Amino acid sequence: MTHQLPRPSASADRPTLLLPRRPADSPARQPTTGTQPGRPPARQQAELQGRFELIQRLGLPTGAHQDYDHFADELAERTGFLYGFVNLFLEQQTFIGLHQPPTGSGYVIVGRTMSLEHGWCPEVVSRQKALPLPDVHASPRFSGNHVVDAVGIRSYFGAPLIHSSGITLGTVCVIDPDRRPLSEARRLRDLVTDTGSQVMRHITRVPAR
């Protein structure tokens, strides 16, 4: 089934993930900004337009989908992380695949969308390379982030979803409140990268229209 997408707009509001924030008296870190660090807005908009058109041609879902939830479930299980995502970059980060702890577990329950300015996936899309962060606080560049404060995340591993056309559709990633040993970084990165390859094979199994 073809999914109709709204046309990208440079001035459109970008909903943020509805997450509880830390109390006002807690020290706040500055969120990351920009969907494509170091790239001019005009180039970002052109890339977004190309991504929208490719997603339409591929007939990709733009909301929750059981196939991609399954990928997120498997990725979280393989890595031992609490949260797993298959994330399309539309006018907001859109989690067409999502794995998270059950309601009542005591962990934050996340929604299906998040601002393009939050998290570490914008860095993965920009650099078009996997990003292993066994401890996000090990680097000041990555420790200052809305997701760190809102969910209490300590580790992140993400890999890009790159189409053969060269367009990056989004990412697959996992996050967790506990940091991971540096000795585990390569193995976890490879697991996430392998899942990204599986997702891309699934996406392209039917020829684009």
Number of strands: 6
Global geometry: globular
**Coarse structural class:** alpha+beta
Give the mean pLDDT.
Answer: 83
Counted by DSSP, the helix tally is 6
Strand order of the largest sheet: 3-2-1-6-5-4
Largest sheet: 6 strands, antiparallel
Gyration radius (Cα, Å) is 16 Å
Residues in helices, as a percent range: 25-40%
- The poorly predicted ranges are 1-36
End-to-end separation in angstroms reads 12 Å
Topology as H/E string?
A: HHEEEHEHHEEH
Percentage of residues in DSSP E strands: 15-25%
Plain-language structure description:
This protein has 209 residues and is of the alpha+beta class. Helices cover 33% and strands 17% of the residues. The chain is built from six helices and six strands, in the order H-H-E-E-E-H-E-H-H-E-E-H. It has helices at 41-58, 66-79, 121-127, 140-143, 146-151, 185-203, and strands at 83-89, 93-99, 113-114, 131-133, 155-162, 168-176. It has a six-stranded antiparallel beta sheet, sandwiched between helices. A hairpin with a 3-residue loop joins strand 1 and strand 2 (93-99). The longest helix is centred in the C-terminal third of the chain and has 19 residues, at 185-203.
